[in-house]
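Researcher: Sequence recovery benchmark, item below. Answer with residues only.
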């Protein structure tokens, strides 16, 4: 017999939902969403048929791998091809794709395909995930997925040809093409070529593979909003100021970094010294692109000069563009802070770019992003130095490199990842998680979801700095 409808029960249920949604802010939705994906991925990687015979994968290592894949980082506890079966590799690939595009973008895309209307809360969550405005979110979600899959398919074609040239069979070349195309576009840095953890060192003379991967990394790293802006406004003058800044800073850091690497390594036989001039430039360009959050390497990073190591850490810290598959503090943040410094030195209260004044809110957010990043990294480094104090194989330089790589979701390493203690692995996982979510979004999730307008204005303090 059907239970009669109760108005009191309906009101009570609705009140419970209101209480839940009141506390479930957009920042908290992102945090919970990525955490759930990581946990599910960890459980899938723990399945017996996800790892090769004779491999015992601990939960913390499965969690580390799932976090690295979902946060599109690329740090690994062991070579992916050496411990994971094709099923395990597919799980990692799906985690990379979900983490790269953003789960809110993907769910919004499927909602649109099913003809479902996006709720206001979902639209707000998606705008936070993509770091964009709320206008045309439905069409933007569709364009993002189409652009991503279109670019990845082109990458698969060229990479399949490149791996076939290396002598692999068509089936193996196709799988390598699929995996590395998705991994590169999502700036993840996972590879299934090396069985010893040397990444792409074995194919550093195949310029087709390196250039294709570099282009995929670059396209994924400039941001979906930039890609859509370029596709809709093909003339440079018509592009938004954000797009112009991203393109300018990306070119400066990419080719500037490549030039520094070539100057530092051209006579180093342990890296690129024995390569022809074209090979040196291709590998330096590839490394400059990769260390801005991709995580592939085509030569031994432990043999780099101090100048190259320092430049790599700087590029990792800066990272890619907002709303992209990459991490770091973002190139636009660096531009805003640099422009503000110049304006301050010229005794100007505001700085103008392309006939537009950059607002105080933008500057404040840029300072906050850098401050939070430095705070997280310094705190993490102290904990890691304490945890690894008695481990002779881990140097301070390698730990700092590892920590920056994790927070910037880059994935490059000086070889200390498998040697880390459980405490350090947890710290690295937290850094990857914060780097993908964004420290700004993470700490904002713990604040109250209210906006209060100050009715009282206090006199401005004159503090000497």
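Model:
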């Amino acid at each position: 017999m059907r239970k009669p409808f109760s108005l009191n029960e309906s009101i009570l249920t609705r009140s419970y939902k209101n209480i839940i949604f009141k506390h479930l802010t957009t920042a908290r939705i992102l945090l919970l969403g990525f955490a759930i994906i990581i946990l599910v991925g960890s459980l899938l990687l723990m399945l017996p048929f996800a790892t090769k015979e004779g491999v015992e994968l601990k939960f913390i290592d499965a969690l580390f791998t799932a976090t690295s894949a979902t946060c599109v980082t690329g740090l690994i506890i062991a070579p992916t091809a050496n411990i994971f079966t094709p099923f395990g590799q597919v799980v990692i690939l799906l985690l990379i794709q979900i983490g790269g595009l953003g789960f809110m973008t993907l769910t919004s895309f499927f909602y649109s395909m099913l003809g479902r209307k996006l709720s206001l809360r979902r639209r707000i969550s998606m705008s936070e995930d993509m770091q964009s405005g709320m206008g045309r979110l439905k069409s933007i979600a569709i364009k993002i997925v189409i652009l991503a899959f279109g670019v990845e398919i082109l990458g698969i074609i060229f990479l399949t040809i490149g791996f076939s040239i290396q002598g692999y069979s068509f089936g193996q070349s196709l799988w390598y093409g699929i995996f590395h195309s998705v991994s590169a576009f999502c700036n993840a840095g996972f590879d299934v070529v090396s069985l010893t953890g040397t990444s792409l060192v074995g194919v550093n003379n195949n310029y087709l593979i390196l250039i294709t991967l570099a282009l995929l990394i670059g396209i994924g790293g400039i941001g979906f909003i930039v890609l859509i802006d370029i596709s809709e406004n093909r003339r440079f003058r018509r592009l938004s100021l954000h797009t112009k800044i991203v393109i300018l800073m990306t070119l400066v850091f990419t080719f500037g970094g490549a030039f520094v690497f070539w100057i530092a390594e051209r006579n180093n036989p342990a890296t690129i010294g024995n390569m022809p001039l074209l090979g040196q430039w291709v590998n330096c360009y590839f490394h400059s692109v990769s260390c801005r959050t991709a995580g592939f390497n085509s030569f031994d990073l432990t043999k780099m000069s101090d100048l190259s190591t320092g430049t790599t850490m700087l590029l990792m810290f800066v990272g890619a563009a907002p709303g992209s598959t990459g991490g770091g503090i973002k190139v636009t943040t660096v531009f805003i802070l640099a422009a503000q410094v110049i304006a301050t030195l010229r005794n100007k209260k505001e700085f103008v770019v392309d006939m537009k004044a950059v607002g105080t809110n933008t500057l404040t957010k840029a300072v906050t992003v850098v401050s939070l990043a430095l705070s997280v990294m310094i705190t993490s480094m102290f904990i890691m130095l304490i945890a690894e104090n008695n481990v002779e194989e881990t140097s301070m330089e390698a730990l700092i490199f590892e920590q920056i790589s994790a927070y910037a979701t880059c994935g490059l390493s000086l070889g200390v990842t498998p040697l880390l203690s459980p405490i350090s692995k947890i710290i690295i996982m937290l850094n990857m998680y914060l780097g993908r979510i964004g420290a700004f979004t993470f700490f904002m999730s713990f604040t109250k979801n209210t906006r209060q307008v100050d009715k009282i204005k206090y006199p401005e303090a004159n503090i000497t700095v």
